[in-house]
Amino acid sequence: MLLSDIGFAKPFRPPTRYEVLRFRYSSYLGEKHPAAKKVVMTFTIRQLRQALSSDSRFDDAWEHKFKLLCGTRYNQEKDEVRMSSEQFPYPAQNKRWLSDKLDEMIEAATVVLDFDKVDIRLEIHSKTSPSTTVTSERNGSTKYPRIGSN
Questions:
Q1: How far is residue 91 from each of residues 20, 24, 80, 107, measured CA to CA in Å?
Q2: Which of 21, 34, 77, 90 is deepest in the core (most CB within 10 A)?
């Protein structure tokens, strides 16, 4: 007997345009682990703007301010924001905290002053490596990037 015969299984339903947040949990199969409380939330800016498109406040200027508020959590190559929390003892509390912070960031991007001239430079997600490197004194290898060089 299959679970679908009993009525427990539900058919797959793709997410609606308003369901843009994805949450990732870690489970260690019944073992207590410090990382089990961690929750990672990801979403794309494009999908978030589509979900918020009914409000006229969410325009291109808002998107730019929101990306600035996200900082290094925003990946330009994927147009994705990734936020995580593990400060509370239960995953549900961390998920709620992430959701609340996202709401605060969305609201802050609507009221923050003019940041149109601020450029978004997030080299942390760049695939290109820095041109200057430090050579190792032992074998002359160049695997560590030099920080603060010209």
A1: 19, 10, 22, 24
A2: 21
Determine contact, residues 144/136, Cβ cutoff 8 Å: yes
Higher-scoring residue by pLDDT: 63, 134: 63
* Contact assessment for residue 145 and residue 129, using Cβ atoms and an 8 Å cutoff: yes
3-state secondary structure of 41: strand
Contact 37, 89 (CB under 8 A): yes
Instruction: Map out the domains of the chain with their CATH numbers.
Output: 10-145 (3.30.160.20)
Q: Give the chain's mean pLDDT.
A: 80
* pLDDT tens digits for range 3-43: 566 777 778 898 888 899 999 999 888 888 888 999 999 99
What amino acid is encoded at 94 in this protein?
N
Q: Cβ(48)–Cβ(20) under 8 Å?
A: yes
Half-sphere exposure of 17 (CA within 13 A, CB side): 7
